[in-house]
Each structure stands twice: as structure tokens, then as C-alpha cells.
Design brief:
This protein is mainly β. The chain has one domain. Helices cover about 5% and strands about 35% of the residues. It starts with 6 loop residues before the first helix and ends with a strand.
């Protein structure tokens, strides 16, 4: 999963955001959230046109719509972990990482849906139903990740925060054992035509309702040395707001 590219470069290369609360995308009306113009240079399965988070009772619904078929394009398998790619749909939020079990103020808490055929990071779940929970990284699945800038990933780039050798930070119960701040909670993404949704329960839904958010599609890459930084964001396809300012308001 994680985010090299300057935010200024992103702003220059991404279409302007439509500020209107209602947009039309592929004959489906999307209301609220963040609307974004389609961009021909972005691959359609990752060309965000609408990003939204709503709540139903104690459940948060993470929603994203793209100009093509959501989830239709996955990374090519390389046969090795080092240098392998992760494709992702990401909702960066203003929530503190402590909300889901990480150390407080550890970085930017983001919810992500990812696919990566060269490794599996959901050891508690068997997404493809074949009886082996360790061979289904290519199946779209969900994560919480904590992100921070790291120049080692590139100028202005983000990474999934590494866990230094010997340290014992606070981690969620469903942490998959990787030396990065990642959680594999098992919430199943649902793809339908040009949309993607994930339903995520919370003990305190108020922290979600008070949060800001954004939408990002991106490719991450495992370090060729499989070392710190382990997982860098190497190619941002699109940012819903254009500048990663987290302008989205939940239920609005």
C-alpha cells in the first residue's frame, strides 16, 4: 500500500475540482462529498470523479466513483516481493491514528483498498476462499495505514510509516505482522460498475463524523532492498481535491 511526487506537481497535472455538491458521472448522480472532473490522462479505473464518507448508525461508508470500471486494473505480478507494486484507492483522513489502535499522532491515518499479487498482508482472512489465507493479495482488500513524508521515497513523497527494529509501538489487534504501521481489519470492499464502497464499523462513530477527508488513487512500491522505507507511494494517479487538503466533510 503507500504515496514519490510533489504536491505542486500534482496540482499542475490534475484536473480542477468541481466545487458543486452534485455532479453527474456516467449517468449516475453523486451528491455531497468531493466532486472531481474526469481527466483523460488518468487511467479510467483510477480517474476519481466522486469521493464521499457517510455514516449509518455506527458504520462509516467509504465511497469512491471513477470514470471507468472501478477495480478493473491491477498490478502485474513480478514473482518477488522486492520492487513489487501495490495499486490502491485511498481515503486520507484527519482522524488520529489512535482511533483505530495505533500510537496517537503517528502520522496521517488513511483507509485504503489495495491489490498486490506478489504478497499477502491479510493473514487472518482468506479472501479468495481457497482454504489458504496466504495467497490472495491480488484480491481487493482493505487496510488502515499511517502515512508520513519521507524524502527517501522521493521529493515530497509519502510512505507507510516504518516500525524501527526493537521498537514496540501500539498496534491494532489485526496488525498483519509487517514492520510498518498497517492494519488488516478484513472489511470487504464492494465494486459495482464505476463505484467502490466499504462499510466500516466504529465503536465511536462521532470521531468519523467530525473528520475531514480526501480521495487518492495511487501506486505504491515495496523497496528493492525490502528495508526502511519499506513501502513508498511512487505514483499518485489522482487526488480528488487536487491538493490533498482534506476538504471533505462526513455526511455533507
Amino acid at each position: 500500500m503507500t504515496l514519490p511526487i510533489k504536491l505542486t506537481q500534482l496540482v499542475a497535472s490534475i484536473a480542477l475540482v468541481i466545487a458543486s455538491p452534485t455532479i453527474l458521472a456516467h449517468d449516475a448522480v453523486h451528491t455531497g462529498g468531493i466532486g472531481s472532473k474526469p481527466v483523460a490522462s488518468v487511467k479510467a479505473p483510477y480517474d476519481i470523479v466522486h469521493t464521499k464518507i457517510t455514516t449509518e448508525g455506527n458504520t462509516a461508508v467509504f465511497h469512491m466513483a471513477v470514470s471507468g470500471k472501478a477495480g478493473a486494473l491491477k498490478p502485474t505480478k513480478t514473482g518477488k516481493l522486492a520492487g513489487s507494486s501495490v495499486f490502491s484507492y485511498v481515503w486520507p483522513t484527519s482522524m488520529d491514528p489512535a482511533v483505530v489502535g495505533f500510537e496517537a499522532k503517528a502520522g496521517i491515518l488513511a483507509f485504503a483498498v489495495t491489490s498486490h499479487p506478489d504478497f499477502d498482508d491479510t493473514p487472518l482472512f482468506d479472501e479468495n476462499g481457497d482454504g489458504d489465507p496466504a495467497n490472495d493479495g491480488n484480491v481487493w482488500h482493505s487496510h488502515w495505514v499511517v502515512l508520513q513524508p519521507d524524502e527517501a521515497c522521493g521529493k515530497g513523497a509519502l510512505k507507510v510509516v516504518d516500525i524501527p527494529d526493537g521498537s514496540k509501538p501500539k498496534l491494532p489487534k489485526t496488525w498483519p505482522g509487517l514492520p510498518v504501521l498497517i492494519d488488516s481489519p478484513g472489511w470487504s470492499p464492494r465494486f459495482k460498475a464505476n463505484t467502490l464502497e466499504v462499510r466500516v464499523p466504529f465503536d465511536d462513530i462521532g470521531v468519523v463524523q467530525a473528520a475531514g477527508f480526501d480521495g487518492v488513487t495511487a501506486a505504491l512500491r515495496v523497496n528493492a532492498s525490502v528495508h526502511n522505507p519499506l513501502l513508498c507511494v511512487v505514483n499518485v494517479f489522482k487526488v480528488a481535491s487536487g491538493d490533498l487538503s482534506l476538504p471533505g466533510k462526513v455526511n455533507q
